[in-house]
Design a protein that fits this description.
Chain B: Its EC number is 1.1.3.15. The complex is a heterodimer of chains A (about 400) and B (about 475). Chain A contains 13 helices and 18 strands. By secondary structure, chain A is α+β, with helices and mostly antiparallel strands. In chain A, α10 (about 295-305) packs antiparallel against α11 (about 325-335). The radius of gyration of chain A is 21 Å and the shape is globular. Chain B folds into four domains: about 10-100, Uridine Diphospho-n-acetylenolpyruvylglucosamine Reductase, domain 2; about 110-225, Uridine Diphospho-n-acetylenolpyruvylglucosamine Reductase, domain 3 (2-Layer Sandwich), CATH 3.30.465.10; about 230-335, Alpha-Beta Plaits (2-Layer Sandwich), CATH 3.30.70; about 345-430, Alpha-Beta Plaits (2-Layer Sandwich). Classes of the chains: A alpha+beta (about 400), B alpha+beta (about 475).
């Protein structure tokens, strides 16, 4: 374990980075380290944590905005929102069980990883709701992008560039999100389907209906294969819409309606990768493809000795399997062949250091990536090698 | 007036040679060089600024776009991308030594996939063209800027265009899956695809809204959505702007997210009513148009809830549309707002700041004071759900002093937006119009950070020059690696 710096404020983060920039000494960047096992391990003598920067700094329920320092634990934010009947729109996964960590994710971590849950298919990704950020770039400068209003196209959108950059371009210190009222009620239509292809056809029919499906997943369980379609809204709407979806699903298989409690449990599990029931030694991948290609990814996972379920209407495959380079290569190849993308979400350190954990970028894009990295972190000290070897 | 950089004499002197080279890349009638036919390209939706370009080139393929950009890069020629030329911020304003790349000939719809809910279209397809291609099957493309009949998806991507329904459906950035991106060096890069959330840096997010500073987009993969069963509007008029603002807060606090929530102030109500005869109450200080979606029963349920909320705020008038026709009638005045103001004033500037919604009463009061101070009328329309304010400043373009005052008035409004915690532009973009105000919102080192990213894409600063970044201090080189 390297030496950990955990300053109590933004000025401390800035000073630590300016110092690292001056001495050209790399820093591993994290919040609570809950996703340290995600992507590639960073080789750095020192770790810079944002966990000392906590607290909600602004919350205006009637304006649908909340700001918090980057190290604020996500559950703290969720609790504050719940008190006012609101929620995080992208429904980010709680990865504690998968990574075997105790500390919850921080807001900065979840945004830096752009992690989104089932509601992504209907309401957008984590990055879609980042309205503004403050971050420290690789020379120690504090930079603001975006703001605290819902609509803003002033200047380059560095919020989106930083979201999903895993701390390699800058260290976010404060984040403002758009939030929404949490729906009053929910229900899930469960459809028994004969196979994955039929299941994704059912999901597509549900998402192509006018009933506002906000979760669409395909599970392969002891009860056979099930297509799941969630409706969230005011109670009378949920009753009406679930009825309409059941009607639409009649052609796809036998149906039943899971009530609000069961529905909440179903989607929390899907959000967190729980249906994989992955053992400690197994690796986990997330593959994103067009929904109709989902069954092919499931089949490829099975052929490689793994197993999978689908979220996002069939377009997101959660896969667990043997943690070998061979299995990784098969899954990466299947994602590429389907025109999609993959992430080695969890795996032993040796595997994560040995393989490309994300798809390679074509050479002109890789060249741009190096130049953009240099524009933000000229000495290359922030999280070197976190996303790609040598980058 | 906003300053434009002096043309490079070397480029002007090489005009014939440049035109010949472009004609070799885009043969036939793909290059426009004569003065009469260049005239329509001298301006865009910000008609106060005009400059005939060196030449216009109208490529028909991504390969031609790439070849034109490579040529310009190798020869140090400035490039101005253009879609339909509807930018209200001067985003497509040419320079005398710049080549305009018009994408209107790239107007094919390449793929529609209803099962996977995406469409692949060329940059020159109009915004409404996407919806028209899928509406027969019950689908639509969500972002709906006012110019949607004319504006092109490539321009929408470059400006991250919004519309009246963003509160529920988001802006362009939230509805994209992929783009074909062409760099100034002529490299063609596929970003994203038909899937969600490509792993790695969010290039799609950075490019969207980059106003042509980073590269051009020739193909776009958009998400298409199933249309709701139906939609219906209601009108609520109040005695004061604070009261209307409080009603908006109460609606949001009740958990309802209307698909549209539009606010008009008194001058706007009067202008629209005179134009459209929509039955708007002329004694109101502020009026809301609220639209909800769903089945007829769901619409009734939501409209009744909203009506009950509005009744707590002593409304002057509450009118719930019973039919689609009545709904259209309520919208008629609002949709014609710009035309209506155009009838009572020879010219107007349409501003586009965003403010925290709670600041609306204060901001409207200050705008009223400025209106008196500048001696110019102003009408305000406001996307109340998302805080995007469109003051329409009335002036007379034939009177140079009137135009100068209108620009100063507009700049003061935008400064006020930043002061109360908002921003310079919600959906129209910075362009040339708000370029010199960027230093109001950003510190010098923050602008330099953005400039360094621009340099990473466009080392010679040839792409859409004189827009977005104040001229002083640009370009900024990348730090040595």
């Amino acid at each position: 374990m390297s030496e950990v710096l955990a300053p109590a404020d933004e000025a401390g983060i800035s000073a630590a980075i300016a110092d690292a920039h001056a001495s050209r000494e790399p820093l591993a960047v994290e919040g609570n380290g809950s996703k340290r096992g995600l992507l590639r391990p960073v080789q750095a003598a020192r770790t810079l944590s944002t966990r000392g920067l906590t607290g909600i700094t602004l919350y205006r329920p009637s304006e649908l905005v909340i700001s918090a320092r980057a190290g604020t634990p996500v559950p703290e934010i969720e609790a504050a929102l719940a008190e006012k009947g609101q929620h995080l729109i992208a429904e980010p996964p709680d990865t504690r069980a998968l990574f075997g960590t105790e500390a919850p994710a921080t807001l900065g971590g979840i945004v830096a990883a752009n992690l989104s849950g089932p509601r992504r298919i209907a309401w957008g990704a984590m990055r879609d709701h980042v309205l503004g950020i403050r971050f420290v770039n690789g020379t120690g400068e504090v930079i603001r992008s975006g703001g605290r209003v819902l609509k803003n196209v002033t200047g380059l959108d560095l919020c989106k560039l930083l979201a999903g950059s895993y701390g390699t371009l800058g260290v976010m210190t404060e984040i403002t999100l758009k939030v929404l009222p949490a729906p009053e009620a929910q229900a899930t239509v469960v459809v028994a389907v004969p196979d994955a292809a039929a299941g994704v056809r059912a999901l597509s029919a549900g998402l192509g209906s006018p009933y506002g499906v906000s979760g669409a997943a395909l599970l392969d369980g002891p009860d056979g294969m099930q297509a799941l379609l969630r409706i969230e809204d005011f109670a009378p709407s949920v009753a009406y819409r679930a009825g309409r979806v059941v009607h639409e699903m009649a052609a796809h298989g036998g149906t039943r309606i899971a009530d609000a409690d069961e529905s909440r449990g179903i989607w929390a599990a899907i959000r967190d990768g729980a249906p994989l029931a992955a053992t400690g030694g197994e690796a986990i991948w997330r593959v994103s493809v067009r929904p109709s290609a989902g069954p092919g990814i499931m089949a490829a996972a099975r052929a490689a000795g793994g197993r999978a379920y689908l979220d996002w209407g069939g377009g997101l495959a959660w896969i667990a399997g043997p943690a070998t380079e061979q299995v990784h290569d098969s899954i990466a190849a299947a994602a590429r062949a389907a025109g999609g993308t993959f992430t080695l979400f969890r795996g032993p350190e040796a595997l994560r250091a040995a393989v490309a954990v994300l798809p390679e970028e074509p050479p002109p894009l890789a060249a741009l990536a190096r130049r953009v990295k240099a524009a933000l972190d000229p000495a290359g000290i922030l999280n070197p090698g976190r996303m790609r070897a040598g980058g | 007036m906003i300053a434009l950089p002096a043309p490079k004499p070397g480029i002007l002197a090489r005009r014939e040679e440049i035109i010949a080279a472009l004609s070799a890349i885009v043969p036939g009638d793909g290059v426009i060089a004569d003065e009469t036919r260049l005239k329509p390209y001298e301006t865009d939706g910000l008609a106060a600024y005009r400059q005939v370009p060196l030449a216009v080139v109208l490529p028909g393929s991504t390969e031609q776009v790439a070849a034109v950009l490579r040529y310009c890069h190798e020869n140090g020629v400035r490039v101005v991308p253009r879609g339909a030329g509807t930018s209200l911020s001067g985003g497509a304003l040419p320079l005398a030594d710049a080549v305009v790349i018009g994408l209107m000939r790239m107007n094919r719809i390449l793929d529609i996939n209803l099962d996977d809910r995406f469409a692949v279209v060329e940059a020159g397809v109009t915004n409404i063209g996407i919806t028209r291609a899928v509406e027969g099957d019950g689908f639509f493309y969500a972002p709906d800027p006012s110019s949607q009949l004319a504006c092109m998806i490539g321009g929408n991507v470059m400006m991250n265009s919004g519309g009246a329904h963003c509160l529920k459906y988001g802006v362009t950035a939230n509805n994209l899956l992929g783009v074909k991106f062409v760099t100034i060096e002529g490299e063609v890069i596929e970003i994203g695809g038909a899937h969600l959330d490509a792993a790695g840096y969010d290039w799609l997010g950075l490019i969207t809204g980059s106003e042509g500073q980073l590269g051009l987009v020739t193909e776009v993969t958009v998400r298409i959505l199933r249309s709701p069963e139906g939609a219906r509007a209601m009108l609520a008029a109040f005695k004061g702007t604070e009261i209307a603002g409080a009603a908006v807060d109460a609606i949001i606090a009740s958990g309802i997210i209307p698909v549209a929530l539009e606010f008009m102030d008194k001058p706007c109500i009067h202008a629209c009513e005179a134009f459209a005869h929509a039955g708007y109450p002329l004694d109101a200080e502020a009026m809301l148009i609220i639209e909800v979606e769903g089945s007829t029963a769901e619409q009734d349920e939501l409209l009744n809830r909203i009506k009950a909320i509005c009744e707590r705020f002593d409304p002057i008038s509450l009118k719930v549309a019973e039919t689609a026709e009545q709904s259209l009638a309520i919208w008629k005045g609002r949709k014609g707002a710009f035309g209506a103001v155009g009838r009572i004033s020879p010219d107007y500037l349409c501003m586009d700041g965003t403010i925290p919604t709670s600041e609306l009463p204060f901001v409207l009061k200050r705008i009223g004071e400025m209106s008196a101070q500048y001696g110019l009328g102003v009408a305000n329309v406001f996307h109340a759900g998302d805080g995007n304010l469109h003051p329409l400043i009335m002036f007379d373009a034939n009177d140079p002093d009137s135009f100068r005052r209108a620009e100063a008035f507009g700049a003061d409004i935008l400064r006020l937006c930043v002061e109360v915690g908002g921003c310079l532009t919600g959906e129209h973009g910075v362009g040339v119009e708000k370029r010199d105000l960027m230093s109001v919102q950003f510190a010098p080192h923050e602008l330099d950070q953005q400039r360094r990213i621009k340099t990473a894409f466009d080392p010679q600063w040839l792409l859409n020059p004189s827009k977005v970044f104040p001229l002083e201090g640009a370009p900024v080189p990348l730090a040595a690696e």
